[in-house]
Amino acid sequence: MRTSINALVFVTFILLAQCGSKENKTKVDTPVKKAVEFPRDPHTFANADKAIMKHLNLDIDVDFDEKKIYGTAKIRFENKGTDIVILDTKDLNIKSVKIGDRSTQYTLHEEIPHLGSALEVSIDTFTTSITVEYSTSANAEALQWLSPAQTSGKRAPFLFTQSQAILARTWVPCQDSPGIRFTYEAEVSVPKNLLALMSASNPTEKKDSGTYSFKMEQPIPAYLFALVVGDLDYRATGERTGVYAEPSVLSKASKELEDMETMLNAAEKLYGTYQWERYDVVFLPPSFPFGGMENPRLTFATPTILAGDKSLVSLVAHELAHSWSGNLVTNATWNDFWLNEGFTVYFEYRIMEEVYGKDVAQMLGLISYSDLLKELEDLDYGDDTKLKLNLNGRNPDEGVTAIAYEKGYFFLKLIEQTVGRDNFDIFLNKYFNEFAYKSIDTETFLAYLNKNLLANHNKADSLINIDKWVYNNGLPDNCPKIASSRFEAVKSAADGFLNNNVLNGSKAREWMYQEWVYFLRETSDSISYQQMAMLDKDFRLSYQDNAEIAFEWLLLAIKHDYTPAYNRLERFLSTVGRRKFIAPLYEAMANNPKLAQRAKNLYERNRSSYHYVATNTIDKILDFSSPN
Ligand SMILES: [Zn+2]
C-alpha cells in the first residue's frame, strides 16, 4: 500500500534540452508532475520497478585535508525499457553523469527532508549502465572524520561510514533501499600510512601505494555499504575470523574476541552455513554511535565492549547473527525493521546460550524485558510500539527503538514456546534458506510462518495472537516470562541492601555485568546518597571499566545527585559517542534542574566528536539548534 510518501517523490519527465551544451544540469524548484509508482519503500526515490540497480563499480579518493570523498560510481542496472533511471543522493556534488563516454542529461531534484535529492538521469531504453562523477560535502551524514587526537593512537586521522538507515546516499549515489540489492567492486585511494577496509574482501596489511581494491560478490542493500580508513592492524582469531584495530588496541581487542570462531561455529550449527566466507570485526574509535554495525564480512564495533573479561561479547554474537537475519534475509522497508532486529536478538541469545550457557541467555532475556517495559512507557504505548511501523514521511532512524529489538524477540520467543524449540529451529533453517539474498516485508514473513509452521500446530494461531503482537500497540498479555535464578538472588541482595545496608561483597564481586545492571536497576528508585557512597567505596563503581555498569551507575548518580560520580560522567560523555549510552545520560541530566545547564555546556563542547546519528537524536533532547 502506498500512502503519503508518493507525494514526496517528485519526478519530472520533462527534459530541458539545452542546445550546444553537452552537459545539462537543472535544479528543479517546483514540485513536479507525476509520482513514480515503485517504491513500496517510502524512503527511496528509486524507480526500481523500471530500472533496478545490480552492480556498483566505485573508484574513490579519500581526502582527509578537505574531509571529502571524490570519485566516480559506475552503476549497472536492469532496464525494463525505461528512459530514466532515478538514484538517491543527499548533499552530493554531482559533477557529471555519463553513458559510456557521452554526457547525458540529468536533474537533481529539490531536497526533501530526510530523503535528500532524487537524481534523475536520462537514458535510452536499452541503457544498462551510467557513470556518476561526484564528491561528498561537508554535511555528508554517513561520514565521520576524526582528527588524530580523537583516535587511540593519536597519530593518524580516521574515517568511518555509517550507512544505515538511509545515509549511504550521502557518500555514494545509489538506489538506497533495503529492498534493492547489488554487488560491488571498489578501488579506494587513501594516505599512504593508512589501511582501508570495506564490507567486502579485505586486505590484512597496509600497501605502500595507498590504493586498495575490494570486491563484494554477494548482493547487499546499500545500508550495508561501508568503508573505514585508519591506522589499523590485523590479527587472526581463527581460520575464518579476525580483528582489525588501531595498534594500541589490537592485542586487548583480539584477546577479548578470542571466542569468535567458536561463536561462528555455534551459529552455523543453529541456522546453517555462514554465507559470507570471512567474519572479521574492526574496532572503531569511541565516537562510533552504535554498539556494532553488521556490515557484511566486517562488523564495525565500539571499543566500549572491551571490558577485559569478555563480559560484553554478546554484542559480537548479535552482529554475527545479522549475517543471517538482516544481511541474508533483509527487511524490505524500514517499517519492517523488527524482521532484522527481533530475529537477531533471538538468534544472539541462542548463540550466547550455546557458547556461555543458559544462565547467561536468561539474564540477557530479562534485561531485554526491562528495556522493553521502559521503552513502552517512553513511547507512551503509542503507534511506535507496534512491530510493524509506519515511518512514512519520517526519518527511519526513529524506528530504532527497543520495540523492533526486544518486542520482536519476545514475539519470536513466544512462537518458540508455543511450537517447541526443535520445530522452531527447523522452521528457521528453512526460512533463512528460502529467503536468502532476498528482502521481505512483515506480511510475507507472516504468510510463510502460517503456512510452514503454525498450520501444523493445533491452536498455535490463537495461542500466539499474531495480529495483536504485530499490528497493535503495547505488549500482549501472553508475553513469555523468563525466569533467572541468578537474578532472583540479585533481587534479594538488592532488597537486603536497600533495607539493611548490607551487601555480601564476596558474592557481588563475582557478579557478571548483567547482575550488576540488574542490581542497579532494582535499587534505582529508592537508593540513598549514603548507600551510593557505600557501594562506590566497596566496588569503585565510579571507576568501572565495564561500560554497561558505568552507564547504569551514572544514570543513578544523575537521578540522586550523587556528585562524586560527576567527574566520571563528564569523562564518559567526552570519550564515548555510543548513542545508546550518551542519549539517555544527556536526557537524564536535562531532566534534573541542577544539571540541565551543565548538560548543554558539555554537549556543546563534545558535539563535534559525536557522529551525526547521535547528534541528530541528542539535538532534539537538548533543544540544540545545529550551527549548520
Ligand atoms: Zn542489530
Structure description:
This protein is of the alpha+beta class and 628 residues long. It folds into four domains: 227 residues, tricorn interacting facor f3 domain (Immunoglobulin-like, Sandwich), CATH 2.60.40.1730; 91 residues, Zincin-like (2-Layer Sandwich); 142 residues, Neutral Protease Domain 2 (Neutral Protease, domain 2, Orthogonal Bundle); 110 residues, Serine Threonine Protein Phosphatase 5, Tetratricopeptide repeat, CATH 1.25.40.320. The chain is built from 19 helices and 22 strands. The strands form five sheets. It has a seven-stranded mixed beta sheet, with no helix packed on it. Strands 16-17-18-20-19 form a five-stranded mixed beta sheet. Strand 5 and strand 6 form a beta hairpin. Helix 3 crosses helix 4 and helix 13 packs parallel to helix 15. The longest helix has 21 residues. It starts with 24 loop residues before the first strand and ends in a 7-residue tail after the last helix. 49% of the residues are buried. Zinc ion (ZN) binds next to helix 4.
The unreliable regions are 1-39
CATH level-four homologous superfamily name of the largest domain: tricorn interacting facor f3 domain
Q: Outline, from the CA principal axes? A: globular
Question: How many beta-strand elements?
Answer: 22
Could you tell me the mean pLDDT?
Answer: 92
- What small-molecule ligands were found? zinc ion
What would CATH call the class of the largest domain? Mainly Beta
CATH level 3 topology of the largest domain: Immunoglobulin-like
Largest sheet: 7 strands, mixed
Strand content: 15-25%
